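Lecture 7 notes: from sequence to structure.

We start with a single chain of 145 residues. Read the sequence below before looking at the structure.
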Amino acid sequence: MKFFVTGVGGQLGHDVMNELLKRSHEGVGSDMQEKCDLAAPYMSLDITDRNAVETAILDVNPDAVIHCAAWTAVDMAEDDENVAKVRAVNAGGTKNIADICKKLGCKMTYISTDYVFDGQGTEPWKPDCKDYKPLNVYGQTKLEG
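Now the structure, written as tokens:
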């Protein structure tokens, strides 16, 4: 299969891409920076730019997108001057990717976070758990995504 992986400049996206390559899948990675040390083809992409997202996914023509890109600086996300940018990336960027994947009939996997929960559960979460209670901007924006 051919995959397009967002957020390969971060640990999760980088590891996802490496695992796909190890399993002999074809992949193209993306992130915000101009260059990335990656064993697969790479493109710089701002996921908040809907047109750029559509162009990238059309150019790559993947069987599936694995969306790992996010604003992940949890503490900095709480700063008033960062909230709009965090929301633009984590909610808006995710919506852009999901909308384009839906439009093109491309499968998408969205990597979220346990920050969408409040951490007060007494049992492990079930796969379809909907007991969302984010305690911070990061968790709320990932839930919005």
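The chain has one domain: 2-144. Keep this in mind for problem set 3.
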